[in-house]
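Quick illustration for those who missed Monday's session on complexes.
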Amino acid sequence: MTSLDELAVIVDDAARNATAIPQLSLTQAITVDEAYAVQTLSMARRRARGEHRVGVKMGLTSRTKMIQVGVDEVIWGRLTDAMRVDEGGIVKRSRYVHPRAEPELAFLMKHRLSGKVTPVEALAAVEAIAPAIEIIDSRYADFKFALPDVVADNASSSGFVVGEWHARDIAFDNLGVVLEIDGRVKQVASTAAILGHPLRSLVAAAEMVSRVGEALEPGAIVMAGGITAAEPLAPGMHVRASIERLGRVNFTVEA
Ligand code: OOG
Ligand code: MG
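Prediction with magnesium ion bound:
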């Protein structure tokens, strides 16, 4: 069995060099807890290279996403400043293995949140909400993975774009969501697709990070998880997500 440290180097190198790797679970008997340990170790490598933690991403919080990738557990990963793409910005296709984009809702934390909390407590800890897009890029060949694989691979996180922040007093439990590519509607859904209410994703985030002794810190961004299936990206594409009442967020893949 390869050590957790060695597995962390494998997933970190794959992400850094944008090269596909075989699923770890094909050759390693790795538990989900060990996979989170690999994620922690690989993030420590990023930190050593100067990246800073800016938040958390939740994954597989909607049925559509679970079905698309064939894994039916909620997962989480870490976001760093290097993954941030400016609203309206341009990304290079060569930075990724096989990138996809999905519309999300982002929370900005006002207060520290960790452990078992109620939805009311979670909402009270939120400063603002925004429409967002996540660029996911599984490092595994053919975008195929089992639960421990995707957890070790930092839940496929590779980029995120956040739109304008809005006060959290806008009801966001059932807002229409549209994902467009080059002006064509590709996906339509509601924010209710996120566990019935996006706040449930924040509640889950607080609980899941507490298991490894962490918290959602003030100023942190929490991505609530893909609201629709993710769309594959190709050079030249313009991607836009709109959430009713919260507005639009967009980016372009360099031609
Ligand atoms: C796993 C990451 C899932 C989401 O929002 O559901 C995710 C994947 O689909 O590669 O980011
Ligand atoms: Mg996502």
